[in-house]
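To illustrate the input format used throughout this study, we show a single complete record. The first block contains the structure-token representation of the backbone; no residue identities are included at this stage. The design step must infer an amino acid for every position from geometry alone.
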């Protein structure tokens, strides 16, 4: 016998020309929905073998004490620390964590969201992929009355908490430091223009240059549309910056763990002396940046705290007996740790 295909709340909503929220509330017998509409929805669901215990609609009455995590990639020092923070908060409240990776693919991100939803998690922690521009898959989850907390790479969606780093300040302080070292041709290799973190870090970079009276040179800004996951993207950016028509760069700010490591390796292979020829600063949470040669100046983010705070916000929302209507944007500080890789004129110090 052929197995009947399971329908979803989204399917019911489309078939009956109703919103997902209306279908969800009808199946829960909400007082907000008319008896006529509830009867229509329930009869259609029954006739089409809708199975609520396989869907997140049952979560309000049957908690699984599990959280779904969607991020781009785990082999990343920053995200590894974020996960530690999430696990710490989840353990305190006796929640389980299910981790998925998008590998910077919007298609994979949607698949992961559907998978976690099918596992009836109680809520989601999300850092979006570099390809994500359309947020419909997240708004559909919110219509199912399932909470989402975005962190680091956030989507501009209402009714969600955001936990982010002070990205603009971090890149501002780094750029200002390089200017103080006498650098004028300062390059910036960053992630996709679609990401919130990219625009925030560009904001700080351009602010510092403008304040110093240095013209913004767009040819010194390079984008890695896969966030540094592809070495070829970083390699192309490095080669273009070293052979720029307006002169090669004398300093570089890199915007992630992967971009930083790749850039340092590629520069050394090309015989570029750091910091004598080119000063280097990276957004990175490497545990021991001193092991690099030379020791690496870093913009360090509060990764563990970001994960813990995001998980705490999500669990509080999951366990709230009333609908949450007030949402927060929490901005965590970044710290510029100055070491030899960025110091052309002065002795390296940390601050």
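Output of the design step:
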């Amino acid at each position: 016998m052929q197995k009947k295909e399971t329908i979803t709340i989204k399917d019911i909503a489309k078939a009956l020309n109703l919103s997902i929220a209306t279908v969800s509330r009808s199946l829960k017998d909400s007082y907000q929905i008319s008896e006529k509409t509830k009867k229509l929805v329930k009869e259609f669901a029954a006739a089409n073998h809708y199975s609520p215990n396989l869907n997140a609609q049952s979560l309000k009455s049957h908690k699984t004490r599990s959280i779904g995590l969607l991020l781009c990639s785990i082999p990343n020092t920053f995200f590894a620390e974020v996960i530690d923070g999430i696990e710490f908060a989840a353990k305190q409240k006796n929640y389980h964590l299910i981790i998925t990776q998008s590998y910077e693919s919007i298609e994979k991100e949607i698949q992961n969201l559907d998978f976690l939803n099918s596992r009836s998690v109680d809520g989601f922690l999300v850092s979006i992929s570099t390809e994500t521009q359309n947020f419909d898959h997240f708004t559909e989850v919110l219509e199912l009355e399932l909470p989402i907390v975005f962190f680091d790479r956030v989507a501009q969606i209402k009714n969600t908490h955001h936990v982010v780093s002070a990205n603009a300040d971090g890149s501002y302080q780094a750029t200002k430091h390089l200017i103080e070292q006498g650098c004028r041709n300062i390059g910036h290799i960053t992630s996709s223009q679609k990401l919130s973190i990219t625009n925030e870090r560009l904001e700080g970079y351009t602010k510092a240059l403008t304040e110093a009276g240095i013209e913004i040179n767009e040819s010194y800004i390079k984008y890695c549309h896969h966030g540094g996951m592809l070495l070829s993207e970083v390699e192309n950016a490095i080669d273009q910056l070293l052979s720029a028509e307006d002169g090669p760069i004398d300093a570089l700010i890199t915007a992630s763990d992967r971009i930083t490591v790749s850039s340092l390796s590629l520069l050394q292979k090309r015989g570029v002396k750091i910091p004598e020829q080119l000063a280097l600063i990276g957004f990175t949470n490497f545990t021991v940046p001193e092991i690099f040669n030379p020791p690496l100046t870093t913009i360090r983010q509060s990764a563990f705290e970001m994960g813990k705070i995001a998980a705490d916000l999500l669990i509080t929302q999951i366990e709230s007996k009333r609908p949450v209507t007030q949402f927060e944007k929490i901005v965590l500080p970044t710290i510029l740790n100055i070491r030899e890789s960025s110091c052309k004129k002065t002795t390296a110090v940390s601050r």
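Structural context for interpreting the output: Confidence is low (pLDDT under 50) at residues 53-61, 347-351. Residues 9-50 form one domain.
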